[in-house]
Amino acid sequence: MAVRFENEIPAEEYFAPGHRACMGCGEALAVRLVCKALGKDVIIVTATGCVEIISSALPWTSWRVPWIHTLFENVGAVVSGIESAYKALLRKGRKKLEPGRRIKVVGFAGDGGTADIGLQALSGAMERGHDFLYVCFDNEAYMNTGIQRSGSTPYGAWTTTAPHGAKSIGQRTWKKNMPEIAVAHGIPYVATACPSYPYDLMRKVRKAVETQGPSYLHVLSPCCTGWRFEPKLTIKLGRLAVETGVFPLYEVENGVYKLSIDMDVESLKPVREYLMLQGRFRHLPESEIEKIQERVVSEYKKLRKKVRMSQED
Amino acid sequence: MNEVKGMSRKVALEGSHAVSEAVRMADVDVVAAYPITPQTHIVERIAEMVANGELDAEFICVESEHSAMSAVVGAAACGARVFTCTAGQGLELMHEVLFVPSAMRLPVVAAIANRALSAPLNVWGDHSDAMAVRDCGWIQMFAENAQQAFDLMLCAYRVAERPDVLLPAMVHLDGFHVSHVVEPVLLPEEGAVREFLPPSEYPFPLDPDRPVSMGCYGPPYIYTEVKKAQEVAIENAYEKILETFKEFKEVFGREYRPVETYRAEGADILLLMMGSYSETAALAVDALREHGESVGLVKLRLWRPFPFEEVCRALRGVEVVCVFERALSFGMGGPLCSEVRAALYHLPEGKRPKVVSFVGGLGGRDVRAEEFENVLRRTKERVSSGELEGFEFVGLRE
Ligand SMILES: Cc1ncc(C[n+]2csc(CCOP(=O)(O)OP(=O)(O)O)c2C)c(N)n1
Ligand SMILES: [Mg+2]
To answer: pLDDT tens for residues A142-159?
Structure first.
């Protein structure tokens, strides 16, 4: 059995340098780390969005593993087709793999391609139980098309389609809880992660790869361009999102919740520390920051309750 | 019907089940489909075949037609032989995805049980769905009966998967009139089909041992060249389609042409159409020929790539061409007629027929043989009164 260290980062790059991401892009960093953890025996399906655009302008490609992009909202379905094709071709002896070797089909999509337009295809794929990993790179808006709001944009954030003004505070809705939607499908493995915690992220990817059946990884990917912060703050913002409880890191394995960093409610940093570094929240009055603080605490308490309750039975 | 070489058996089959049979004999690897009338019988039968082991395939019960087409695109990219089928609304929901396999050169094969489009909701047959996907870059053929649906499915796989073609192909069969009618069908021996369709060998499948990037985006500096390459591919496919029809005839005995004719020799008026109504129209032609009228029938089998030359050859020098079609491009007229007119435009004066347009059989409205006789009568009236512009509805209740 191969010995693997918890904090081992392979030297191999499967997402090659030279792509066109913005300086300080949290999504590109997350993709790179996910690919390192995946290794070479994968087929990656990517939705239209920043990841596809920065990595694939003809005639160049950043992908050193088999990669396909078709449309924006169909990653779940393309993944299903690929997984099924491999199953059929292996069974019919038309493809051969060395004993013990397994090809993992992995879907990559943004928060828009996952929580909004691609939700149906993803839901179908999870419900049917294909053997795949789906990674949502959540930068909390449609960044590729110019910072429009998505269902995953947090409350109060400015975006180009949810601007703040005399009659609006910006995004009026609370962030859609996409990991919980995945959990509701009863799939074996769901986790949240963030490239600010690279070892944790990669460990979760490896766990997902080993899982038979659907697994879902939701990766918060700070976006300096869309969130309006200095590129050097990407890692710090990811950390603050976790430390304030805005984006808790956790896993749900066969319905059992587990916090990846076990902080109690009292030890959470104030959300203000996270919000004030980002131009997208700069317009928020004190009262709105309070409202967000309350919401974060109550959501975090709910999550801790799920951890307790699911671990009890 | 022609003699068939080798062993074959004659069975009574619904058009839908003839398609399912072709899928089984083609030993398809991945099927993804979503039910919609009048396509349902095709998938139900395939599901049964997979369930009882008659067909060794993965059957993906997708949650929509958009996903059905997306799934078979993914599977084809791995080198699997794939199938999907739909109709009407389902084809519309697939619309966005249809342009992907043609540009990415993936040999997806689909059967469409043609259906009218909502609103108002109408589950019955016409060609509105087919016309709406005219420009998606697929090879498209029209069957007029169950036998043709079966045969053209085999031809579709053979030509689509040729390494010098690699394009998706669609077989259209009229909803209900073909999909739900039980007809005698000659089913060839499976061995002959396996020989005609050896396992597909897609040259650049998604494979970790040979990584490729598929579906990269094309900025303005390269998009035009990509489209040019795609156009060259489908133009070149024309010859390969002819070859495929020829090879099909050699093995199975039945002959197909991009443009087929019935009693067209020396006719002054030719009726032109696609799909199952040509069988009804043939009865009208017979009746009128009995009365000494000089009429004949032209059936467009191949819709894309459009067989310009063969259309011109079939219609050249005829006095009048009467195009009957089951679709309408609102504010323009009959889309089939407009293409036929375009094909004839360059014929020299004197060789260029007059063209009159009729639209009917919409949303499953029956058009009987007598009505085709009427259409031919109206054609003559319209020619003599000079009413060549526009189109006329067939069987409209006013
Ligand atoms: C059907 C369709 N609708 C809209 C678009 C335009 N579009 C392309 S990417 C995108 C947003 C992507 O946002 P997200 O999924 O969050 O990924 P990101 O770019 O933020 O990483 C949109 C709206 C499209 N390509 N296809
Ligand atoms: Mg996004």
So the answer is: 999 999 999 999 999 999
Please, what is the end-to-end C-alpha distance for chain B in angstroms? 41
Domains of chain A: 26-312 (3.40.50.970)
Of the three residues B218, B252, B286, the one that is the final residue of a domain is: B252
Q: Please indicate whether, in this complex, the C-beta atoms of B78 and A85 are within 8 angstroms of each other.
A: yes
**Domain stops at, among B252, B273, B297:** B252
Cβ atoms of residues B260 and B352 within 8 Å: no
Residue A55 near residue A15, CB atoms below 8 Å: yes
B289 within domain boundaries:
yes
Which residues have CB under 8 Å from B129's CB, separation 6+?
B87, B88, B91, B92, B112, B114, B115, B116, B117
Give the CATH number of the domain where residue B282 resides. 3.40.50.920
| Alpha carbon of A143 to ligand 2 centroid (Å) | 5
Question: Does A121 lie at the interface with B, CB-CB under 8 angstroms?
Answer: yes
| Distance in angstroms (rounded) separating the CA atoms of residues B41 and B30 | 18
What is the pTM (predicted TM-score) of this model?
0.97
Q: Where do we find the tokens 């490239």?
A: A195
Amino acid symbol at A170: G
B67–A40 CB contact, under 8 Å: no
Question: Do residue B199 and residue A85 have CB atoms under 8 angstroms apart?
Answer: no
By residue count, chain A amounts to 313
Closest Cα to residue B62, out of B85, B89, B34?
A: B34
Tokens of B275: 């799909």
Quick check: CB of A195 below 6 Å from ligand 1? no
* A180 and A116 Cβ atoms separated by less than 8 Å: no
Domain match, B246 and B273 both: no
Q: How many CB atoms lie within 10 A of CB B263?
A: 16
Q: Which of A57, A63, A120 sits opposite B219 (nearest CB)?
A: A57
Contact residues, chain B, for A41 at CB < 8 Å: 208
What secondary structure, in 3-state letters, does chain B show? CCCCCCCEEEEEEEHHHHHHHHHHHCCCCEEECCCCCCCHHHHHHHHHHHHCCCCCCEEECCCCHHHHHHHHHHHHHCCCCEEEEECHHHHHHHHHHHHHHHHHCCCCEEEEEECCCCCCCCCCCCCHHHHHCCCCCCEEEEECCHHHHHHHHHHHHHHHCCCCCCCCEEEEEECCCCCCCEEEEEEECHHHHHHHCCCCCCCCCCCCCCCCEECCECCHHHHHHHHHHHHHHHHHHHHHHHHHHHHHHHHHCCCCCCEEEECCCCCCEEEEECCCHHHHHHHHHHHHHHCCCCEEEEEECEEECCCHHHHHHHHCCCCEEEEEECCCECCCECHHHHHHHHHHCCCCCCCCCEEEEEECCHHHCCCCHHHHHHHHHHHHHHHHHCCCCCEEECCCCC
Residue in B175, B154, B157 with CA at minimum distance from that of residue B167:
B157
What ipTM does the predicted assembly reach? 0.97
Domain count, chain B: 2
What does each of the 313 residues of chain A score in pLDDT, given as a tens digit? 456 666 779 999 999 999 999 999 999 999 999 999 999 999 999 999 999 999 999 999 999 999 999 999 999 999 999 999 999 999 999 999 999 999 999 999 999 999 999 999 999 999 999 999 999 999 999 999 999 999 999 999 999 999 999 999 999 999 999 999 999 999 999 999 999 999 999 999 999 999 999 999 999 999 999 999 999 999 999 999 999 999 999 999 999 999 999 999 999 999 999 999 999 999 999 999 999 999 999 999 999 999 999 998 7
For residue B246, the enclosing domain spans 7-252
CA of A146 to the centre of ligand 2 (A): 10
